[in-house]
Structure formats: structure tokens, C-alpha cells
Amino acid sequence: MLSRILSHLAVALLWLLHLLPLPVLAILGRGLGWLFYYIARRRRKIALVNLALCFPELGEHERKQLARASFQAIGRSILERSILWWGSRERISRLIKLVGEEKLRSLHEAARPVILLVPHFVGLDAAGVAIAMRYDSVSIYAAQKNEVFNRLLFKGRQRFGDQLLLSRQDGVRATVKAMKSGRPFFYLPDLNFRRRDSIFVPFFGVQTATISGVSRLSKAAGAAVLPCITRMLPGGEGYRVEIGDAWTNFPTEDFVADTARMNAWIESVIRTMPEQYYWVHRRFKTRPPGEPGFY
Predict the structure, then answer these.
(1) pTM, whole model, 2 decimals?
(2) Based on CB atoms within 10 Å of each CB, which residue in 129, 190, 234, 264 is the most buried?
(3) Cβ(77)–Cβ(232) under 8 Å?
(4) What pLDDT score does 194 carry?
(5) What contacts 92, CB < 8 A, 6 or more positions away?
């Protein structure tokens, strides 16, 4: 009961925060992230392990600075999400600049199935809203343990348009059917899932359990793959969502090579804004047989 009351109070506070100007929210969010860095010991340790694996060329002090910046970006994304959930369409449109939308539009008008490849940068919800304001899309939704926040997240993702949220249990067939019906698939493939759903390919030089779904779904649906990244801009400047050119010669007959190509692309984008990647996830949790864990 107490947990439910506290959750409702947190939601009420978030609602109030969405009334603030974005520059003020950005300052508060960075402060919240700074606090998280020092009190969320487990998540801090995970981030530092990830950064040590991915950036061995950096010294310990530099990696700690990068981890603090990452937590501050996460803090910003939490508070600024309130605008995405409750802000007006006009305010959100000013907040998010969508670049390259014509690439998606031309494929959509040609009735070509599309996969939007969306790595886990902290501002990715801005991309989800920008797409939802323009298209009826499909995405995978993982239910949250907290019932109050689960309802809030679910409602927030369905706020604009007719958005189809599938669970992982719905399977490939439902996703392919949705894409073929004209829904772009907003796909986040770069988390650690079950071993049976993954293959090991390099990521920052580390053999990493990676879902091969981009290759398999692209082949099953005849879908074009468009990279989609979100850059959180400094201060009160908002977000820049970038849709890239459709990948050529993809998929191939080699889904392992396709998946390695995906990881190499994600790595290249991370290097342009490492502080905005979601380092607090145990990306390297699943190891090849006989190899010790990192965490």
C-alpha cells in the first residue's frame, strides 16, 4: 500500500515538473543523475565495468567522469520524459527535431515494410514520440513490475496515433504481420536477452550475446532497415532524431555477419556520444560457455 502511494506521489511530481521550462528541467535532471551516481551503487558498478570493457584506452578517472555524465543524461531523460507524456503536441514538436523523415515517408508510401533500428541511447523515447506523432507503428513493450508506472509508460507510448505494443511472447509472426500492414517497427535490439535467442558477435571487441532479430525479421518481412538515433542536445535545446539511409545489401544469407554489422554500427554511433548510451544495463552478462562473468 505504501509503495503504491509513493508511486502515485512520484507520478504527481512528474506531472508538475512538465510545466517547467526545458532548461530548468535539464538542470534538475542533471542534478538527479548526479545523485543517482552516488546512491545507486550497483548501477554505478555496472556502468564502470561496461566502460572499462568498451574503453580500455581511457584511464580510471576518465571512465568515472564518463559514467557521471551518463548518469546525468539518464537523470535528464527521466524528468524530460514528463513533457513527452503530458506536454502539448505543439510543445513536443518544438522540442524534437526530426531529420531524415522523408526516407521513412517514401518507403511507407511505397508500402515497403520498415524496421527502425533504435539503439539504447537515453533519449530514445523522444524518437518514439516523434515517430508516433506521424505514423501508426509497432514496438515491443516489456511490462514493468510497478503497476502504477507500468500504466503510465503504456499510456504514454500510446498517446499519439494507433500504436501497437506487442510483448516478446507475441513472437515473430505478429511483428511481421504488423510491418506488412504498414506499421514501421520501432526496434531496440541491443540488450542482453536469453542465451537461446542470441548469438555471440563482437561489440567493442568483446564477444557479446546479441539478438539476431534485425537480420531475421528483415528477411521474413522483406523490410528495409533504417538506422534511427536520438541525440539529447545541451541545456534547453531539446532532441535531434536522425533517420539514416536504408542499409544496402541487407540482409544477407549470413545472419551472423549481419548481426556483427549491426553491432559495429551501434559502436560507431556510441563513439560520437558515449555519455548518452545506456551503460547501466548488464550488456555483457551472458558469456560464452566456460568464460567467467564480468559483474
Answers:
(1) 0.93
(2) 129
(3) yes
(4) 66
(5) 83, 84, 129, 133
